[in-house]
Design brief:
The chain is of the alpha+beta class and 421 residues long. The protein has helices at residues 54-57, 105-112, 114-117, 122-131, 186-196, 212-219, 231-244, 259-268, 270-280, 325-337, 353-360, 382-387; strands at residues 9-16, 31-37, 49-50, 62-63, 69-73, 76-78, 99-101, 135-136, 149-153, 158-159, 163-164, 202-205, 223-226, 284-285, 299-303, 311-318, 342-347, 364-366, 373-375, 377-381. Strand 12, helix 6 (212-219) and strand 13 form a beta-alpha-beta unit. Helix 7 (231-244) packs parallel to helix 9, helix 8 (259-268) runs antiparallel to helix 9 and helix 10 (325-337) packs parallel to helix 11 (353-360). The radius of gyration is 32 Å and the shape is elongated.
Length: 421
């Protein structure tokens, strides 16, 4: 339903994101709704063709000498009509069978153009179709020629519609899956952007989440602007674009670039700071960014370094000015309580030597795959993570359940030029 009062609303696009499932006392929720707007009435529309349904393709069993696939179709329709549409042609009288000629004007126009086709009678159009090889003359049981039939040629595809059922959701093993809960397939956004914009034009996604729309826009050589209210999303998009398009350049506004910016964010909004800090170690917010009671966990990372199970790393972020050995010791208990393989203690304030010693004293995690050892409790600083002098150490196996995995590198390179608005 069109939102009232929104002049530039154009379409509601329905995408079936999952198969049928049991839903007690209500209709099954299997689709997402995407609202499509244009900047002005000067709307761009590029026809996008999708593959025909297999049942439709099964009708096209015939081949022309040049290899074109075609299906047999009617050239007549029920009912007698006086005048040209009922006239006899090449020994075939439709009125004798209670029929009249039914001509595909589009087929005639494809052969001689719309202006010329408009001047022709029905029988003249039949001549055009016959001369153009678009009529089939079946044999009768006694061997003579029967009534002609129309050769409906197989088109390259069917025009895209506003209900999308041919693009599957991202499954748990998909290479493009990054671990973001609302991530949509790249193919879906590529279709929408290709249909409604041209190369070099600007695509705006004001709720860009994990960046699928800007990824698609970059791949299709569009300019783009992505906006999100969470620092986690922006950090994820930065990583995604650099993984997919090595050497890409773009500007990011509003996220901490240095220690002073990080400290400012910590004082302004502790939750946004925690979510942003989690992104520095490639973690996702604990319990989907829900604000609530402090469980000692702000983020979580899943990884896999054997064939039996997915393992967990818990993250605790401290944005205050006072940190202590007791906090590190308590976090060690959290790691044990959660049965986590490791834990990252990320602090804005520099830790004391005793805090680092407490972390080291927790022991090591040994990877069963490589034998490599990693400190079970790692104390990391915001300043060190920003400068690159520190990094979270753990088995990074893209084949496993790594949170926010590396995006697939795109073969075609694109350049984000200066926007002209």
């Amino acid at each position: 339903m069109r939102p009232d009062g929104v002049e530039n609303y154009r379409n509601e696009i329905i995408w079936k994101r999952t198969g049928a499932h049991s839903a007690a006392k209500r209709w099954g929720d299997v689709h997402d709704t995407i609202l499509f707007y244009s900047k002005s009435d000067a709307l761009v529309w590029n026809q996008v063709l999708i593959a025909h349904d297999p049942a439709y393709l099964a009708r096209y069993r015939n081949l022309d000498p040049d290899g074109r696939e075609w299906a047999d179709d009617n050239l007549t329709a029920p009912g007698v009509r006086r005048g040209d549409s009922g006239a006899a042609w090449k020994g075939c009288d439709p009125t004798a069978k209670g029929l009249h000629w039914k001509i595909s004007n589009r087929a005639v126009e494809s052969l001689i153009g719309s202006a010329a086709a408009a001047t022709l009678t029905t029988t003249e159009k039949l001549d055009v179709l016959d001369h153009g090889g678009l009529l089939h003359w079946p044999k009768t049981k006694v061997g003579g020629a029967g009534f002609p039939r129309f050769k409906r040629m197989l088109s390259a595809g069917v025009s895209v519609q506003d209900v999308v059922t041919d693009i599957a959701p991202i499954n748990s093993q998909a290479q493009e899956r990054l671990g973001y809960p609302t991530q949509k397939p790249l193919a879906l956004l590529e279709r929408i952007i290709a249909a409604s914009s041209n190369e070099g034009e600007v695509v705006l996604d004001p709720f860009c989440g994990c960046g699928t729309a800007v990824h698609a826009a970059e791949k299709l050589r569009r300019q783009w602007i992505g906006i999100d209210v969470t620092h986690l999303a922006i950090s994820l998009i930065e990583k995604r674009l650099r993984d997919a398009f090595p050497g890409i350049t773009f500007e990011v506004h509003g996220t901490p670039k240095d220690f002073d910016g990080a400290r400012n964010l910590a004082f302004r909004d502790k939750y946004q700071f925690q979510w942003w800090a989690c992104s520095l170690v490639n973690a996702q917010p604990f319990q989907g960014k829900k604000k609530g009671a402090d469980t000692g966990i702000d983020g979580v990372i899943y990884f896999q370094d054997d064939t039996t199970s997915t393992k967990k790393i818990v993250v605790s972020v401290k944005g205050g000015e006072n940190v202590s050995v007791a906090m590190v010791r308590d976090f060690g208990h959290v790691i044990d309580r959660e049965k986590a393989a490791m834990g990252f203690f990320v602090t804005l304030t520099d830790p004391t030597k005793h805090m680092v010693t407490e972390g080291v004293g927790t022991g090591y995690y040994t990877s069963p795959l490589t034998g490599a050892k990693f400190p079970k409790l790692q104390v990391l600083t915001i300043e060190g993570l920003l400068s690159g002098t520190e990094q979270a150490r753990y088995p990074r196996m893209d084949a496993g359940g790594l949170t926010f995995k590396k995006a697939k590198r795109e073969e075609k390179q694109a350049e984000q030029k200066k926007l002209q608005l």
